[in-house]
Protein backbone atom coordinates (compact mmCIF):
# COMPACT_ATOMS: atom_id res chain seq x y z
CA UNK A 1 0.00 0.00 0.00
CA UNK A 2 1.56 3.28 -1.14
CA UNK A 3 0.69 6.25 1.06
CA UNK A 4 1.54 9.92 0.72
CA UNK A 5 1.37 12.60 3.37
CA UNK A 6 -1.31 15.21 2.70
CA UNK A 7 0.16 18.68 3.11
CA UNK A 8 -1.33 21.98 4.20
CA UNK A 9 -3.38 23.75 2.79
CA UNK A 10 -5.13 20.61 1.39
CA UNK A 11 -8.78 20.65 2.56
CA UNK A 12 -8.59 16.92 3.42
CA UNK A 13 -6.78 17.92 6.63
CA UNK A 14 -9.90 19.83 7.74
CA UNK A 15 -12.18 16.77 7.57
CA UNK A 16 -13.48 15.34 10.81
CA UNK A 17 -12.57 11.65 10.97
CA UNK A 18 -15.18 8.91 11.39
CA UNK A 19 -15.25 6.23 14.06
CA UNK A 20 -13.62 2.93 13.10
CA UNK A 21 -16.18 0.13 13.22
CA UNK A 22 -14.34 -2.62 11.29
CA UNK A 23 -11.13 -3.95 12.82
CA UNK A 24 -10.24 -5.94 9.75
CA UNK A 25 -7.40 -6.68 7.34
CA UNK A 26 -7.81 -3.34 5.52
CA UNK A 27 -7.35 -1.43 8.80
CA UNK A 28 -4.29 -3.55 9.62
CA UNK A 29 -2.87 -2.93 6.14
CA UNK A 30 -3.31 0.84 6.57
CA UNK A 31 -1.66 0.85 10.02
CA UNK A 32 1.19 -1.30 8.71
CA UNK A 33 1.77 1.13 5.81
CA UNK A 34 1.57 4.25 8.02
CA UNK A 35 4.43 3.20 10.32
CA UNK A 36 7.33 3.13 7.82
CA UNK A 37 6.06 6.37 6.25
CA UNK A 38 6.05 8.07 9.66
CA UNK A 39 9.54 6.75 10.53
CA UNK A 40 11.04 7.57 7.11
CA UNK A 41 9.78 11.17 7.29
CA UNK A 42 11.15 11.65 10.84
CA UNK A 43 7.73 11.78 12.46
CA UNK A 44 6.72 10.61 15.92
CA UNK A 45 2.99 10.52 15.16
CA UNK A 46 0.72 10.18 12.17
CA UNK A 47 -3.07 10.33 11.96
CA UNK A 48 -4.90 8.40 9.22
CA UNK A 49 -6.38 11.65 7.86
CA UNK A 50 -2.81 12.78 7.08
CA UNK A 51 -2.65 9.97 4.50
CA UNK A 52 -6.18 10.76 3.22
CA UNK A 53 -8.08 8.16 5.29
CA UNK A 54 -10.71 10.04 7.34
CA UNK A 55 -10.94 7.48 10.14
CA UNK A 56 -10.25 7.86 13.87
CA UNK A 57 -6.91 6.07 13.82
CA UNK A 58 -3.41 7.28 14.63
CA UNK A 59 0.01 5.87 15.36
CA UNK A 60 2.74 7.14 17.69
CA UNK A 61 6.31 6.16 18.36
CA UNK A 62 8.06 8.62 20.65
CA UNK A 63 11.86 8.24 20.45
CA UNK A 64 13.60 6.67 23.45
CA UNK A 65 16.57 8.29 25.23
CA UNK A 66 18.88 7.14 22.39
CA UNK A 67 16.65 8.79 19.79
CA UNK A 68 15.54 5.38 18.49
CA UNK A 69 11.95 4.39 17.64
CA UNK A 70 11.91 0.61 18.15
CA UNK A 71 8.91 -1.19 16.63
CA UNK A 72 7.88 -2.54 20.05
CA UNK A 73 7.25 1.04 21.22
CA UNK A 74 4.73 1.70 18.45
CA UNK A 75 1.27 2.69 19.68
CA UNK A 76 -1.72 2.14 17.40
CA UNK A 77 -4.62 4.18 18.75
CA UNK A 78 -8.10 3.72 17.32
CA UNK A 79 -11.18 5.74 18.35
CA UNK A 80 -9.40 7.64 21.16
CA UNK A 81 -11.41 9.48 23.80
CA UNK A 82 -9.71 11.77 26.31
CA UNK A 83 -11.00 11.06 29.81
CA UNK A 84 -8.63 13.26 31.85
CA UNK A 85 -6.30 16.18 31.24
CA UNK A 86 -4.19 18.22 33.65
CA UNK A 87 -1.22 20.52 33.92
CA UNK A 88 0.12 22.78 31.22
CA UNK A 89 3.24 22.71 29.13
CA UNK A 90 4.62 24.42 26.06
CA UNK A 91 6.45 22.46 23.40
CA UNK A 92 7.87 23.35 20.02
CA UNK A 93 5.74 21.29 17.65
CA UNK A 94 6.10 20.46 14.02
CA UNK A 95 3.87 18.45 11.70
CA UNK A 96 4.46 16.17 8.73
CA UNK A 97 1.52 17.90 7.02
CA UNK A 98 3.05 21.37 7.62
CA UNK A 99 6.69 20.66 6.75
CA UNK A 100 9.60 22.81 7.92
CA UNK A 101 7.53 24.88 10.32
CA UNK A 102 7.84 24.69 14.11
CA UNK A 103 6.05 26.69 16.75
CA UNK A 104 5.61 26.72 20.54
CA UNK A 105 2.18 25.32 21.38
CA UNK A 106 0.48 25.09 24.80
CA UNK A 107 -0.87 21.64 25.68
CA UNK A 108 -1.91 19.64 28.72
CA UNK A 109 1.05 18.00 30.43
CA UNK A 110 -0.88 14.85 31.37
CA UNK A 111 -3.70 13.09 29.54
CA UNK A 112 -5.57 9.84 29.98
CA UNK A 113 -7.24 8.28 26.95
CA UNK A 114 -9.42 5.28 26.32
CA UNK A 115 -8.94 3.73 22.89
CA UNK A 116 -9.03 0.50 20.93
CA UNK A 117 -6.12 -1.40 19.46
CA UNK A 118 -6.03 -2.83 15.91
CA UNK A 119 -8.14 -5.80 17.06
CA UNK A 120 -10.82 -3.69 18.75
CA UNK A 121 -9.64 -4.40 22.31
CA UNK A 122 -10.30 -1.53 24.73
CA UNK A 123 -7.25 0.03 26.39
CA UNK A 124 -6.44 2.96 28.67
CA UNK A 125 -3.28 5.02 28.43
CA UNK A 126 -2.01 7.53 30.99
CA UNK A 127 0.57 9.75 29.30
CA UNK A 128 2.69 12.72 30.20
CA UNK A 129 5.49 14.73 28.64
CA UNK A 130 6.17 14.31 24.92
CA UNK A 131 3.81 11.34 24.60
CA UNK A 132 0.91 13.41 26.01
CA UNK A 133 1.77 16.26 23.63
CA UNK A 134 1.92 13.91 20.64
CA UNK A 135 -1.42 12.29 21.57
CA UNK A 136 -3.12 15.71 21.73
CA UNK A 137 -1.52 16.80 18.43
CA UNK A 138 -2.68 13.64 16.61
CA UNK A 139 -6.15 13.68 18.22
CA UNK A 140 -6.52 17.26 16.95
CA UNK A 141 -5.96 15.92 13.42
CA UNK A 142 -8.96 13.61 13.91
CA UNK A 143 -11.06 16.75 14.48
CA UNK A 144 -9.63 18.60 11.46
CA UNK A 145 -7.46 20.85 13.65
CA UNK A 146 -3.83 21.66 12.84
CA UNK A 147 -1.28 22.91 15.36
CA UNK A 148 -1.06 26.20 13.45
CA UNK A 149 -4.72 26.80 14.36
CA UNK A 150 -3.56 27.27 17.96
CA UNK A 151 -1.30 30.21 17.09
CA UNK A 152 -2.13 33.77 18.03
CA UNK A 153 -3.53 35.95 15.25
CA UNK A 154 -0.16 37.71 14.77
CA UNK A 155 1.81 34.42 14.68
CA UNK A 156 -0.72 32.89 12.28
CA UNK A 157 -0.35 35.83 9.88
CA UNK A 158 3.44 35.49 10.08
CA UNK A 159 3.14 31.75 9.43
CA UNK A 160 0.93 32.29 6.36
CA UNK A 161 3.46 34.75 4.93
CA UNK A 162 6.44 32.44 5.61
CA UNK A 163 4.60 29.42 4.24
CA UNK A 164 3.67 31.19 0.98
CA UNK A 165 7.29 32.26 0.57
CA UNK A 166 8.52 28.69 1.15
CA UNK A 167 6.01 27.30 -1.37
CA UNK A 168 7.18 29.84 -3.97
CA UNK A 169 10.83 28.88 -3.37
CA UNK A 170 9.93 25.21 -3.71
CA UNK A 171 8.28 25.84 -7.10
CA UNK A 172 11.25 27.85 -8.38
CA UNK A 173 13.68 25.13 -7.28
CA UNK A 174 11.97 22.56 -9.55
What does this molecule look like?
The chain has a single domain (11-173), classed as Peptide Deformylase (Alpha-Beta Complex), CATH 3.90.45. 29% of the residues lie in helices and 29% in strands. The protein is built from three helices and seven strands; from the N terminus they run αβββββββαα. The protein has helices spanning 25-40, 129-142, 153-173; strands at residues 45-47, 57-60, 75-86, 89-95, 98-107, 110-116, 122-128. The strands form two sheets. The protein has a five-stranded antiparallel sheet. A two-stranded antiparallel sheet has the order 4-5. The longest helix is centred in the last third of the chain and has 21 residues, at 153-173. It is globular, with a radius of gyration of 16 Å.
Nutshell version of this structure?
It contains three helices and seven strands, in the order αβββββββαα.
Descriptive terms for the model:
peptide deformylase activity, 3 helices, single chain, 29% helix, Peptide deformylase, alpha+beta, Peptide_deformylase, 174 residues, two-stranded antiparallel ribbon, EC 3.5.1.88, five-stranded antiparallel sheet, Peptide Deformylase
Beta-strand segment tally: 7
Strand order of the largest sheet: 1-2-3-6-7
Question: What is the CATH T-level topology?
Answer: Peptide Deformylase
How many individual helices? Answer: 3
Classified in CATH, the superfamily is: Peptide deformylase
* Overall form: globular
Sequence stretches where pLDDT stays below 50 over 5 or more residues: none
Query: Per CATH, which architecture?
Result: Alpha-Beta Complex
- N-C termini distance: 27 Å
Rg calc: 16 Å
Structural class: alpha+beta
Helix content: 25-40%
H and E order: HEEEEEEEHH
Average pLDDT reading? 96
Amino acid sequence: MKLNIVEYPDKTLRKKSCEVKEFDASLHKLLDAMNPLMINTNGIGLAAIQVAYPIRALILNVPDEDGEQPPENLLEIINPVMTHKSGETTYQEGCLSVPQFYEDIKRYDNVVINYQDRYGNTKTLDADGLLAIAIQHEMDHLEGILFIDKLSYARRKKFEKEYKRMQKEKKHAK
